[in-house]
Amino acid sequence: MKIMISLRNAPDTIAIVKPSETWQTAAARAVKRAHGRRASVWGWTCNSWEQDRAGRVIASFYHGTVVSTPAQRGGGHAVIDEASVTIR
Which of 15, 16, 35, 46 could form a disulfide linkage to 30, CB 3.0–4.6 angstroms apart? Predict the structure, then answer.
């Protein structure tokens, strides 16, 4: 399965979900590739979904906040981007 990841401060990318992982893991891997290994995504929420005429969900749209891990000597998690994921 492939998922489309849109980032505000980086180019859009496509991540391939491996058989042994979830779409969140694949999205996190793509975010780390775009923002570095200290970046992570918090708070995935489903914004909306599309259904076909039979009522089956054919696409889901999720949103999350990209944060960087704090420096070693404290500090908060800085918000560095917003991520949107489309699953079809």
Answer: 15
